[in-house]
Hints:
single chain; about 85% helix; 5 helices; mainly alpha; elongated
Amino acid sequence: MKGYQKLTIITAILGLIIPFIGLFLYFLINSFVGIPILALFVGWALLIAIAIIALNVGAIVAAFKIKNNKIVGGILIACGVMLFALIQWFAIPALALFVIAGILAIREKNPLSNLKRDNIAP
C-alpha cells in the first residue's frame, strides 16, 4: 500500500465516524418521535452528513481504483477543498491531510509508465 493510500484511508475513516454517529442519532431520535418532525430542525445537518460520507467514500475509491497518480492527486485535493467548502473550519484537518495525500500521489512515480513509454512489455 502506497503512502498516499494509507493517508487517504486514515483521513476518510476518521472523517466518516462523526457523520455516521450523527445519522444514527438522527434516526434513533426520529424513531422515538414517530413523525419526521426532526427533519424540520436538523434536515440541513442530515444533508451535510450525507455529502461528507459521499466525499470520503469517493476519496477512498479514487485512491484505490484509479491507476493514474496525477488524477488521483487532483481528486484528493478536490475532496479536501470540497470538504472545507462544505463544513468550513471544522474541515481544516481533513483539508490538510487530503492535500498532503494529493501531493504525495502526484509525486509518486508509476513504474509501469516508464515501461510503456519505452515499449517494453511488463
